[in-house]
């Protein structure tokens, strides 16, 4: 069997096993996926052609599917293995803050969210988002964005690790006019968070 065929077989096995884990509501990678990724780490970032979602990476696939806690946990596991996230991941998950928390662990967050140039953080405050009226979710997202965290802190995806915190350092520094609209809804909760921290936060915010 030539190299191209082997690569194709490995890719097919990876996609099949990923779908199986989602359908069975199992929130961990399992031995088969763990082995496939261990031998072929490139599987984490290649695109594969899906009948329903088109060309997607593994992280995009999990964000396009039904947004469940088991799919979210699988997403976190893939990110923990080194999988990258994309703008598409955020576009598919913007309404669900528990997914956004997980996506931030990759160290990537888009600035512009659409062709109009709307900022992702402002779009997360839209009326249809679960984030808009949930003060606990707002605080958790802000802590991750600002790096105002420590190992062992509890979030919807589980316990924060030291490696998680290291990747969070790659997120863009929050700055009005760059990461979000000045005096917008997100800027309001950011300023309120910094104000209420009373100097105890380790957060860094550009003004």
Structural account:
- It is a single chain.
- By secondary structure, the chain is mainly alpha-helical.
- The protein contains 10 helices and 4 strands.
Runs with pLDDT <50, length 5+? 1-6
Rg from alpha-carbon coordinates: 18 Å
Strand order of the main beta sheet, please? 1-2
Terminal CA distance reads 59 Å
Concise summary:
This protein has 10 helices and 4 strands, in the order H-H-E-E-H-H-H-H-H-H-E-E-H-H. With 207 residues, it is mainly α.
Topology:
Elements: H1 3-23, H2 30-39, E1 48-50, E2 54-56, H3 58-64, H4 69-80, H5 87-93, H6 97-104, H7 120-123, H8 135-146, E3 154-155, E4 158-159, H9 162-168, H10 185-197
Antiparallel strand pairs: 1-2, 3-4
Helix pairs in contact: 1-2, 3-4, 3-5, 4-6, 6-8
Keywords:
mainly alpha, two-stranded antiparallel ribbon, 207 residues, disordered N terminus, globular
């Amino acid at each position: 069997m030539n190299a191209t065929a082997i690569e194709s077989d490995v890719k097919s096995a990876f996609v099949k096993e990923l779908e199986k884990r989602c359908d069975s509501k199992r929130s961990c990678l399992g031995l088969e996926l763990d082995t496939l990724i261990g031998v072929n780490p490139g599987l984490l970032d290649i695109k594969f052609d899906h009948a329903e979602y088109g060309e997607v990476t593994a992280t995009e696939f999990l964000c396009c599917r039904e947004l469940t806690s088991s799919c979210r946990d699988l997403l976190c596991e893939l990110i923990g293995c080194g999988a990258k996230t994309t703008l598409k991941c955020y576009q598919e998950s913007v309404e669900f803050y528990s997914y956004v928390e997980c996506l931030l662990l990759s160290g990537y967050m888009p600035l512009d969210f659409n062709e109009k140039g709307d900022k992702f953080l402002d779009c997360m405050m839209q009326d249809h988002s679960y984030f808009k009226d949930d003060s606990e979710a707002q605080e958790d997202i802000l802590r991750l964005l600002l790096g105002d965290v420590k190992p062992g802190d509890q979030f919807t995806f589980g316990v924060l690790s030291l490696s998680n915190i290291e990747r969070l350092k790659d997120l863009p520094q929050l700055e009005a006019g760059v990461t979000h609209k000045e005096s917008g809804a997100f800027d309001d909760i950011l300023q309120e968070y910094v104000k209420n921290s009373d100097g105890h936060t380790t957060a860094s915010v550009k003004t």
